[in-house]
Every structure is written in structure tokens, then in C-alpha cells.
Amino acid sequence: MNAFQQARFISSVVRAEDLPPAAGRELVFAGRSNVGKSSAINALANRRRLAFASRTPGRTRSINFFELGGGARLVDLPGYGYAAAPRALRATWEPLITGFLAARRRFAGIVLLTDARRPLVQSDRQFLAWLAPVDAPRLVLLSKADKLSRVEQAQALAHSRAALAKERIEATALLFSSKQEETVAEARALLEQWLAERRA
Question: Which domain range does residue 114 map to?
Fold first, then answer.
């Protein structure tokens, strides 16, 4: 049984002072609001309602923690960029995320979801640049790839890899769709590998 099959929800945190103590390896999921993080997490875990997906941008307003097998965790960060939430609430997200990153030292990996139809926009690149000091491998998942043709998928992937190289960001870029098992399986296999490699 892989780590994702054992996933279970632990808690949601809205204040940095309430963050649970660091324990083991953590896979961090990030991305713009409404990019499909919850759907991706559900697909990787082969579950329908592990993470709650919504059509409304900004649904994830807290840091959500999920326990994985082998003592690892999956951490779902609030979406950045546009969000249907009050400005005062959105203003609390950056210190919350900053506090989380500052309190952690053992990341198994950072997973950034970006829309394959508009990959690696400025806010995505800013987020990756902000994470530059974090010691962990990066995976950029081009979500909703099923909405593109094969030619468009290849173009989006090539564009993303070129953009990462231009910004001198070391990251693996993969096409992803929660509706296409082959893309889910490829991403899951890589993340499982990272969890195993950073077990020590």
C-alpha cells in the first residue's frame, strides 16, 4: 500500500501559533486559487472527499494537514492570487504560510499546481522564487491538462520547462489531470520516490 492510500485528514490551521509541531517528512501543495489542488490531492489518494474541492476560488483558507503512510504528511496551503475571500482574511494567509515555512526543516518536496492552459504566470514564478531558500525538490504539475489537445499539452509542457530554465528554477514539470490516471500515476510515483529518499 502506498503512502497516499493511507492518507487521512488531521487538522486545519488558520493561525501560525496553532501550527502543529513538525513531525517527519512533509509534502507541500501550493498553487493559485481554483487551480485544482484539492482535486489533485483526491486523485493522488484515490479518494473522492479527502480534500474538499470547490468551483469558488479561495475555498482553502487554512493550512490543511493530512497524515500519509510511513509517518509523512501532506500539507495543503491556501491558494494565492485571486480569491473570493475578504481582504482582511487574505492578508492573514502570507504570515500563516511564512510561519509554517520558517518552522519546518524536513520537506520531502514542494508541489506547485499551475493551470496547463495558463502555466507559470507571474504569481506562480513569484511563489517559486519566494521558496528559493527551502531545501526540497520541486514538482510543477500542469493541472487540467485534459482540457488541452495533445499538441497543446506538448506546447504547454515545453513552455513551462523553458520558463523554469530561464528563471534558473530547478523543478520537474509534468502534465497532470485528476481525470487521467496515467498522469496521476506518474506524479504519485515521483512523490512516493521523494518520500522514500528523504525518509532518513
Answer: 3-197
**Is 38 within 8 Å of 97 (Cβ atoms)?**
no
Rounded CA-CA distance 177/73 in Å is: 22
Number of domains in the chain: 1
SS (H, E, C) the chain: CCHHHHCEEEEEECCHHHCCCCCCCEEEEEEECCCCHHHHHHHHHCCCCCCCCCCCCCCCCCEEEEECHHHCEEEECCCECCCCCCHHHHHHHHHHHHHHHHHCCCEEEEEEEEECCCCCCHHHHHHHHHCCCCCCCEEEEEECHHHCCHHHHHHHHHHHHHHHHHCCCCCEEEECCCCCHHHHHHHHHHHHHHHHHCCC
Which residues neighbour 58 within 8 Å (Cβ) at sequence distance 6 or greater? Answer: 33, 34, 78, 79, 82, 83, 84, 85, 90
Q: Residue 84: which CATH number? A: 3.40.50.300
Closest among 177, 197, 179 to 187, alpha carbons compared: 177
Lowest average pLDDT, out of 45-54, 119-128, 159-168, goes to 45-54
- pLDDT tens-digit readout, 33-91: 889 898 999 999 998 778 765 444 444 568 899 999 888 999 998 887 644 444 554 55
